[in-house]
Structure formats: C-alpha cells, structure tokens
Amino acid sequence: MEEVKFCSYCGKLTSSCYTFCPWCGKSLESKTDLAGVLDKPFDKMERIQVEERLEVLEKLESYLDSLEEELEAFLAKSHH
Questions:
Q1: Cα radius of gyration (the chain)
Q2: I need a labelling partner for 38 at 20 to 30 A (CA). Which of 53, 72, 75, 79 fits?
C-alpha cells in the first residue's frame, strides 16, 4: 500500500513519493501531522464566519437605528 501525506500548505493528500505537491506546487519535504494541516483551513473558516457575523450585526444595528428614528418621528407627531 502506498504511503500518503498531507500537503502542509493546501491540506490535500498526496503520494509520499512526491517532492512537491501536485495541487499547489509547494515543497512536501517536511512531514506534517493532520492537526497541523487542518489548523490553517479551520482558522480561515473561523475568520470568515466572524467577518460574516460582524456584517450581520452591522446590518441589524443599522436597521435598529432606522427603527429608532421612525419611532422618534412617530412620537414627535403624536405629541403635537
């Protein structure tokens, strides 16, 4: 059975006979454990999720600001 290893740059499986990753072209000289390979993609996914959550929160904040302005205008009209 052929030994495989993970590319520490792109995380894809490659044959251990390769010196360079056939997917991204980076050197495969150092052996990397699975946890080390997976850290990079999971960190990137976490950053993307945080950015998306921040965008949602900013939209909600803007929506709440506009609702507050409408409520203030409504209350101002009702007091006249």
A1: 26
A2: 53
Amino acid, res. 42: F
pTM for this prediction: 0.48
Q: Domain residue spans in the chain?
A: 1-32, 43-80
Distance CA 62, CA 42 (A): 30
In 1-80, which ranges are E strands? Answer: 4-6, 13-15
Query: Which two structure tokens, joined as six digits, stand for 70?
Result: 């409408």
Residues in CB range of 20: below 8 A, 6 or more apart: 26, 27, 28
